[in-house]
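Narrative progress, year one. The postdoctoral researcher (J.K.) led the effort to move from monomer predictions toward full complexes, under supervision of the PI. The following entry was the first complex the group processed end to end, covering 571 residues in total.
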Amino acid sequence: MGLFKPLNPKADLLNKSIKEGTQKEVMAMQSIVGCTSTFDPGWEVDAFGGVAGLCQPMEADLYGCSDPCWWPTQIPDIMSNSKWSQNSPSAMKDWKQLTSTYPIEE
Amino acid sequence: MSNNELKINNHNFRVIKNSDSNLLFHVPSSSLFELDETNESLINRLDNKKIESFSKEEIVELEKLNIVGNEEPFKYTEVKNFPATTLILNIASGCNLSCTYCYKADLETLSNSGNMTFETATQAIEHLYEGAPGQKLYNVTFFGGEPLSNFELIKDVTIYATKFFKEKDAQVDFTITTNATLLTKEIISFLKSYQFGITISMDGPKAIHNKTRLTNSGSGSYDMVRKKVELLLSMYDKNRPIGARVTLTRGITQVEEIWDHLFNDLNFSEVGFAPATASDNAIFNLSEKELVDVFEGFKKMGEAYIDSACKGEFNGFSNLHRIVGDIHAGRKKKLPCGAGVGLLSVSYEGDFDLCHRFTGSDFPNFGNVKTGLDKPKLSNFIEKRLNTNDGDCSTCHIRNLCAGGCYHESYIKYNDPSKAVLHYCDIMRDWIDFGLYTYSKIRNDNPEFFDKYFNEEKGDTNGLI
């Protein structure tokens, strides 16, 4: 029995180890990996609730407006211009390749 | 310091005062003790630092606990192994909702439907296994965008991974986070047959949910989500709990009301809250006052959690449940999370990132599925964070439970993920103190609760590093 009454199993283990002189081993125990106790601000907004520090750059929004359309930005008509962005697979890197679109000639 | 003066290490213990009992949290080991009157006087005597106030036995034990006396010199920790057993596959870029606080989760164009290829996914799985062979359990998480918009790939990868790990005599566990809107009977049956862990993004009762979680036409998605959730819960296996994940943004602090609806009306097994942390000019952030309100709500919910726990039940409040689990296991973390060590995230292009939040950011990646994981680069990153000894956290009593917070938040705030997150330390310390109080209440009133709800969790890598 140590000085203090243990509440969690680790405290119990620590008390026993003090008697045996192995407390250093108990204190050295640690898990490197676990979930942080700090709050996850959410996957949908940046750490400050805004959009300035998103995991993804804002340019990505441009493609979000095609097919699964979710952001109210104007993009070329994908019914008649489905390949409007084929030369720029990454908006962040290749946005300069995005130029004007023209009606496709039959 | 004179010879008859004790060196007191205040950063190694914390006294938490409550109405019914006072507690002592021993920081170097994450041990929790209850203080009786004799102990109280002993702790009070530490203030005057006089050796002669203590018996020899007391001094010996206090020294062993590192509460008084000289401490072990700091040792540099090396990280050479990366035994990651969790893989996050960012498989789809598209989403069929237009939540006001959302960002686009991928950079693919339509020509490839914004989706990861089967080949990239299988290469990633092979890399995961090569990096940590011979483990008993692996986890594959499907993420997006809205992952169900790429259901065909989920199906193919699930079947592939099941066979792959079976051949290695290992188990594989699948998880998915979805907005529920694309669920069908067929999809639910599939997820059920592979025992998927499912988390649904849902923000509360209709009026609250529809403020932010909109369909593409701009109307609220609540009715559709609710219908699908009811279908899912009616079909799903009772022993595979389904949780709800709530994002709290500006103007929304009704924690209890949201919990009540999701837990009692819709029957989710767990409800987890993610408050958007504040900055001065963001549109969606909780203001400072709102953040305080949220934590007041959390404490109210916490009291309800204690009441349920004392009856042997879990009321689904996962934010507190997780902390109580950490305290029960006596966890000590040198790193805030498993990013880069216990889990790897793979972008649609096959790049390895620390986690899904870095996928697509400017932060450099750590190799890709074709060339393999860049271990030296990852070593450098993790070791930098691990060996920051003189940092802001070294005197904080929750340093071994918080470990400095999320890399991505630091990256955004300070442009350096190796720094600690410092903008809500006070709130976190107060919240962990509440967790310690919660633990002591349940421990004294219903100790069976812990055996029932906390089995050994995966993700601890004792001895591996």
